[in-house]
Amino acid sequence: MDTLARKLGLKTNPQIFFWSAGLTILLLVLFLIFQDWVGDAFGSGREWIVTNLGWFFILGVTVWLVFLIWVAISRYGRLRLGDDDDKPAYSNLSWFAMLFAGGIGTVLMFWGVAEPISHFSNPPFEGVQPYSAEAAEDAMSISLYHLSLHTWAIFTLPGLAFGYFIYRYKLPMRVSSVFYPVLKERIHGRIGKTIDVVAVLGTVFGLAVSLGLGTSQINAGLSELIGLPDSVWAKVIIITTLTIVATSSIVVGLEKGVKRLSNINILVAVGLMIFVLIFSDTVFLLRQLIESLGTYASDVVPLAFWNDAMAEFTKDGGWGWQGGWTVFYWAWTVTWAPFMGVFLARISRGRTIRQFVIGVLVAPSLFTLVWFVIFGWSAMEIDGIGGDGGPISEAVAESVPLAMFEFFDNFPLTTLISGIAVVVVALFFATSSDSASLVVDMLCSGDAEAGPIRQRAFWGLTEGAVAATLIVVGGEAGLSALQEVITVVGLPIFILVTLMIPTLFIGLRHEKHKVTPMTHQHFVQMYSDQLNGNGNGSDTGEASGGGDESVSAPKSGAAPSASTTPPSETATPTANPETRSDTS
Fold first, then answer.
1. What number of other Cβ atoms are within 10 A of residue 226's Cβ?
2. Which pLDDT score is estimated for 106?
3. 368, 186 contact by CB (below 8 A)
4. Quick one: DSSP state of residue 513?
5. What pLDDT was estimated at residue 528?
6. What span, in angstroms and rounded, lies between the C-alpha atoms of 177 and 4?
7. Could you tell me which of 262, 177, 205, 554 has the C-alpha nearest to residue 434?
8. Residue 323 DSSP one-character state
9. What secondary structure does DSSP assign to 89-143, as a single string?
10. DSSP designation for 517
């Protein structure tokens, strides 16, 4: 494999790259040749996972969230993601903007109207009447449960693990590095490479499902605007076109332009939200913004442990609702965990664990709250709270991707706004694919720097090919077929992320001697200095001059501590002979 990598001019770990690429291509061939068999296999697999392991997904994400909160408020929250004298590379404002760009654009566009309306018209709780005020309140709480704190916990945990082990232990930019406290040097052997291959496969298929959902929404929008048939082959053409655009941007070196376009796209999405706020019942939405925050705060704990355990006795469909919503969400979101983990770690180097966890959990969750209140409550009010439903509910029942465009039919400049929405989703598709190609390449190479263009272009084309294949295999089943695939693919990634908790705990315990519990006096002094402008913005204790409160660390250039840093041959990603095939 090393020889082949050199001949192809690749700068990657050959074993991880070729096994990941080979297995992906093999799966694509099997999917296309044995479509019925593959569909049945994924359907059966999903049914078994949902029935027997749904509780594991629901409990698992809640445990992750609790663990993250504990780490943030504990003494370990003052450790930095990087050397102890590192400073954040980005201002808070830029950092928060990048958090939004990284993970929620396409998701909010797809589900902002569709999910609240789905729960509004089909309440999951016994005794709640469809389209009632109670159904509307429950719909909002459930939507926020699915897409705020818990979703961002799924991104925050791997981001924290990556940032901690890669930047403090100087390990390669790979998922296996997170398991160094347990595996030690075996992260460079077969076990480590197996972990990395599983992570790459899960990431590629998770991204493909997201691209498939985005394509469905683009197709629905074009169907409304220009009459393009809402069909499998129309979706394949859309995926192919956008994949070529995204890959071309890599080949001709337009990545900076694409990133700039991504930032503009975010502003356009925010503009859509403001447009809806202005032309809806503005006062009602502002009231709901406050009330929904309180309702979510009171409902999130019961929802976090709700397993619908009595469904087999009280519902005709049994436990199916949780499988189609919560378990699907967690399985789908966790396949983004390696991608988002790398992204969050790269933009957060130099921040303390406390700053990282609070920032990544809270800022995007607050934006999600605002988005869902404006789009979700507007849609439910238009559909008729206390009535019998309306056109938006009918559209969601017919096709979930139609929801946003049926919603825009109730506003002025309908054609223009719908057209802008299609462009926003398409650009989120292209920019996500472009970024994902870079991250998947890093997961293979272990290098934090971009690899050769041919490697990233390969992964860009592969993601598009997988998305198109899933659309073809799913056929007219559409969303349900994608749910089946992602639930099965998400299970091994979910297990890997769960195991990051003990490895992180072990790693943090090794640095226990560096941090002492924060006293009330130190706490008051530290934040008083920050408010008065006397501190450096850190919360390590150094800003307050807290003596034994500060985190001690080797000076720049000094030998790293044996308790936190692996042997010298793994000191940097490029120094490890296994991470590059053509060092010269």
1. 9
2. 74
3. no
4. G
5. 59
6. 25
7. 262
8. I
9. SS-HHHHHHHHHHHHTHHHHHHHHHHHHHHHHHS-SSTTPPTTSHHHHHHHHHHH
10. P
Give the separation between CA 222 and CA 215, rounded to whole angstroms.
Answer: 10
Radius of gyration for the alpha carbons in the chain, expressed in angstroms and rounded: 24
Q: Is the dihedral of CA 265, 268, 274, 280 positive or negative?
A: negative
Q: Where are the beta strands (DSSP E) in 240-372?
A: none
Length of the chain: 584
- pTM value is 0.83
| Regions in the chain scoring below 70 on pLDDT | 5, 100-104, 252-262, 315-319, 475-480, 516-584
For residue 386, count other CB atoms closer than 10 A to its CB: 10
DSSP 553: -
Q: How far is CA 480 from CA 344, 456, 483, in A?
A: 30, 30, 5
Cα–Cα nearest to 446, from 207, 171, 183:
171
What are the phi and psi torsion angles at 556 (to 5°)? -55, 125
The crossing angle, in degrees rounded to 10, of helices 92-103 and 337-348 is 170
Per-residue b/e over 75-88, b at no fewer than 16 CB within 10 Å? bbbbbbbbbbebeb
Q: Is 252 exposed, middle or buried (0-12, 13-18, 19+ CB in 10 A)?
A: exposed
Predicted pLDDT at 536: 45
| Neighbouring-strand partners of residue 190 | none
Encoding tokens for residue 271?
Answer: 């503009």
For tokens 């991707």, what's the residue? 401
Two structure tokens written together for 367: 């934006």
**Cβ count within 10 A of residue 52:** 9
And the tokens for 38? 């593959």
Using CA atoms, how far residue 470 sits from 206, 306, 428, 439, 463, in Å, is 11, 31, 19, 22, 11
Q: How far is CA 252 from CA 8, 247, 257, 261, 544, in A?
A: 19, 9, 11, 16, 49
Write out pLDDT tens, residues 229-238.
888 889 899 9
Give, as one character, the DSSP assignment of residue 550. S
What local confidence, expressed as pLDDT, does residue 259 receive? 65
Please, how many CA atoms are within 13 Å of residue 222, restricted to the half-sphere of its CB?
18
Q: d(Cα 167, Cα 350) in Å, to the nearest integer?
A: 9
